[in-house]
Amino acid sequence: MVAPQPPLPGLEGPTLVCLAKGFRPAGAALSWSEDGASVSGEEVRAGVAQRQSDGSYTLSSVLTLPTTRWRSAHTFTCHVSHSALSSPLTKTGALSPPSLELMVAPQPPLPGLEGPTLVCLAKGFRPAGAALSWSEDGASVSGEEVRAGVAQRQSDGSYTLSSVLTLPTTRWRSAHTFTCHVSHSALSSPLTKSVSSQQCSL
Fold it and tell me: Which keywords label this protein (predicted)?
């Protein structure tokens, strides 16, 4: 699993969480590697095996990385060894940037807000921690006219996320430019898509 916020003060960047579960007896060991080289030190926080109600155990380990190192396209792998395994199991985290689509629908989905609806869709990204935002001629847009969705996991393990901006008709026709922005740990800078009434007539 990859979490967007670090749990340790002073370490900025994503957090990789490795979880081994369902094993017995308790003596499992978790370790990390980066491009095949062992990773240790203060950025690794190892947990203690926890006994579950069915008699099996779970064990976790957390790796927190600087953002620049995470974005360097290195491969981070978690390894688990246990007496029931002939060789260690490994799991490698996949990092995929989002693609971005911006669509204009003529009918608003929200009662009381008359005008077109702009739908921004980020898709194909992993891990889940993407964020969508809106701007109008470069100024941030928020409030009740914005409805943000929740990231949805797809069958291939990637995620999609949507955000809806509903506008009064007069504001849409003012020729202002509306832009959707997506930020994600796989991107060095946000992706954007823009539209205006001059480009899209309803």
Answer: Disulfide bond, Immunoglobulin domain
